[in-house]
Protein 1
Amino acid sequence: MVHRLLSASLGLAPAPQMEEAAIQKQAEHCNNRKMASKRVQELSVDLFFAVFVKECGPLESEAMVMGVLSEAFDVLVLRFGVQKRIYCNALPLVGFQFQKVGKKPQLSLVWEPQSAEQDAPRQVISIFTLVDVVLRAENGATKYSAVLKRPGSQE
């Protein structure tokens, strides 16, 4: 439709013999189909990557923090190009605190010590922080999650 209208405006083709409302409706329909097609493609990629994680996982990778929320943060897993959200309540933490330093959101994580003699490791999560994550398959065949590795751990 866009090409037909462009050709008509350049005088290369006759103008479509349609009402303006009909052209608008057809353009909206085409846009909706395009967006639905893109969404299906994204879901298909997610599905196949989840199967890959289930078959080949767990997978370790470096990740970059892309967003910080009050109880979670989003990471881009650099090796695989996928984004996942990591929830603080799913980690073995003693506690965590969200704060804004200037306009920059930040999470301070306090990990459970691995032994009674150790101090609790602390980790600060802010935008563009590099972290190590593990991608693991979940119970469903089509789901996987990202888990933040404890700082300094070799596991």
Note: The chain has a mean pLDDT of 90.
Protein 2
Amino acid sequence: MVRAPSTDRRRLTSLLAALLQDAPSPASRRFDDELHRATATGGLDLWYARTLWWWQRASLREAHLYVATLLPEVLDAAARAAHDVGEEFARSEAAWNLAREETRRAGISAASPSEVSPPQPGARDRDEDRRRREQAIRAALAGESAHLSGGEAREPPPVTRPPSGDDRE
């Protein structure tokens, strides 16, 4: 049985949001370092540094939101597709069994491959397949984060308003 997409989506969205929020970002740390260096040497004023920092972080938040929203939808679609494939298989199997029975009634004697070597029990359960896919995705996300170096990005200097008469926002 396929679980309600809304339940799975909420759980996976929460998991992804937590993973993405805690993912180390060496590029963000480097960006922060360059901003600090530029402001310390006078190459960039604090107002512009803070503006750049804000929008760089906003772009990360947008990317995190995009992934956390999209991936659960993709997994739900994969579960629905797996369910549909299972139903199609059941229809095909029923049609095959009907045709085989009609062939027997007509007196044609031929063993089908499934009669010679019956299918092995233990075909993978769809819910188990879904759990394995989710686990693989979680492992991939965690593995991607784990190989990056740790450490926290420094905050940029506090915002100071530009001198009066400066019209920057």
Note: The chain has one domain: 5-113+124-146.
